[in-house]
Amino acid sequence: MELSKKHVFTEEFYQNIGMLFYAIAASDKVVRTEEIKTLNDLVQKKWVPIDNQIDEFGTDEAYKIEMIFDWLEEKAPEAEWAFNEFRQYKKDNEELFTSPINQLIWETADAIAASFAGKNKSEVIMLSKLKMLLSK
User: Fold this and answer.
1) How far apart are the C-alpha atoms of 111 and 107, rounded to whole Å?
2) Contact 8, 53 (CB under 8 A)
3) Which of 29, 48, 107, 130 is the 20 to 30 A CA-CA neighbour of 124?
4) 5 close to 51: Cβ distance less than 8 angstroms
């Protein structure tokens, strides 16, 4: 199955995806500029095209990924907390997590982790947990 504009995802979906990407970037306790740039590039190139939902301000819902990421970066909660929030959302909404969506989540998370001097140990651990979660 291919990703297309037929998918309709909610603001809550994108917020939870943003939490996950924050968890990956913050897993080493530092969110780097390169990680933010990678996230923003991938939201624009890969996430915006899959959904044509817009909010009341005419903004594509996929940008909620960036918004929640920025908000979390400012509040600086533990990466583990953000990952667990995503895990619970996924568990409660398995039908949204199709193979193509899981692949896109994986590619984005992996790119964020690799964007600054490769992947460090804490990022590799977080990616391993994500890999297991997405393969369920």
Assistant:
1) 6
2) yes
3) 48
4) yes
Residue among 61, 136, 47, 44 nearest 97 (CA): 136
pLDDT (tens digit, 9 = 90+) per residue, 5-58?
455 688 999 999 999 999 999 999 999 999 999 999 999 999 998 877 777 777
Question: What is the DSSP code (8-state) at residue 6?
Answer: B
In this structure, what DSSP letter does residue 29 have?
Answer: S
Instruction: Please give the model's pTM, rounded to 2 decimal places.
Output: 0.90
CA–CA separation, 19 vs 39, rounded Å?
Answer: 12
Length of the chain: 136
Dist. CA 40–CA 63, nearest whole Å: 9
